[in-house]
Design goal:
alpha+beta
Length: about 280
Amino acid sequence: MVFSTVEAYESIVESITEKEKLVDDLISIPTFSSINSIKDQTLPNIHLRTEEDYNPYEGFIGEILNEHEMVQLDQYIFKIDLYNDQTFVIREEDDLVEALIQEDYSNPKIMKFSTSEDVLYLLAEGFTGSPEYDDNSRMEIFCGGGCSSYNLGSPNIIWSMGHFYMRSRYVKAGIYFELSHHIYVTWYISPPLVTSPLANRYRKYRQNCKSSHSENTKNGFPMALQGVSGWGVSGLVANHKETVYAKTQGLRNILLTPSYQMDNIWYNGPVINCRY
């Protein structure tokens, strides 16, 4: 996958509609295999997975990375290793793609960052690898100390018409950061259409680096499950996901408290609390 400019990539990252369109387009290309398409062939159905089965590439980042975990933005080619929290970067002109594929990172032209760092910002600032962090440095103040990755799941909860499972996630991929919450629902029996569940969440966060943006909101909304036209299908397995934050800049503070209403009973989802 090649993005002509960093700006073109950033505009897609920040638009849910554009991301969905891009993923649909990539799926229709027979010669492109995303890292997700490879991982999903070896994992059980998402509703049956254990934490050991968890695919860290699940979601948008895993759809744009090829089978070698690579993507190109402008002149830079990135290899995102989420299992080891590493981001490797080369310039297209250096002709080191094969080295990345073979996981040979010995060439000094291969730049090495953490997936926790705002890699696009650091490259724009002239860095060729992870900054040296110390208590007095500018980079420690503005980029260091971001929140850890989170993948928190609830127990499987039984309700009158089926069962559901809740998850809260914060994904850090160097060039992509996403905060989201999910609910996976399975119906045992066919419910009336008027029983649409509701979701509610309070969110507060602050960005790393550059001019930091923060948000503090609380709201409730009906859940529109993906791939579902109504709520009356027995045996249906469906997935609701709300993306709270998706940008190329990581988060320094997070408070996310999702909850879901099923049969007029509210259930609290996994809470992410980083420095609040």
